[in-house]
Input
Amino acid sequence: MKAIVCVKQVPDTSGKVAVKPDGTLDRASMATITNPDDLSALEAALELKEQTGCEVVVVSMGPFTAEGMLRECIARGADRAVLISGREFGGSDTFATSQIIAAGINKIGVGPEDVVFCGRQAIDGDTAQVGPQIAEKLHLPQVTYVAGIKKEGDSLICKRMLEDGYMTLKVKTPCLLTCIKELNTPRYMSVSGIFECYSKPLEIFDYPALKDDPLIETDTIGLKGSPTNVFKSFTPPQKGAGTMVESASALVGILNEKHLI
Output
């Protein structure tokens, strides 16, 4: 049994967001972190490992700088790390990205008891599309916005968050789950894990390694295979300083001056 976890390296938006003159994000000048929802997905996989002894495999698509993030996932308890990287994959939108990651998961192999975990969404795109698209391309049943997981035989009992409450669903494995941060509290890296994380090999899936998968075609990956693209990214202007109002009568006076009342 395997728990396959999709993780993404994203810009640290708690700091300054740098934008190039052409309107694209200047990722090279920004600090990066592991996408927060993906850490909850990893923690869910590690908890499943503690219950069942399954193998935890983390998968990420991105540049070679993502190696550090994958090593951190191993230090948290993952068994294997796979980086999907190649110039042919550059410029992919969510559709093309899900094609590539699904092909990578196909190469890892999905068994009858396996579970694919994804974060609900990435903080740099906020689309929440890649996880469900991977499920569709792998022909797996899926549960999104998972806030609770319990294994029961060959099925998982999932608590799914709704806008006004929760619903309980039973899904058979293999399946895909997208996890929200309320699901758990991600664990820290262990000291022994930090020492051992570089002793495990990092597997690289480049274009030649995946090109024989039916999902990988020149018109379904990269910029050419992306039906959508970001026209422009920009940093919104800062709001001006606010005005402190000492009393209700002062507020009424200001509103009167502006002819708002």
Remarks:
- The two ends are 67 Å apart (CA to CA).
- The helical segments are 36-52, 67-76, 94-108, 130-138, 191-196, 207-210, 248-257.
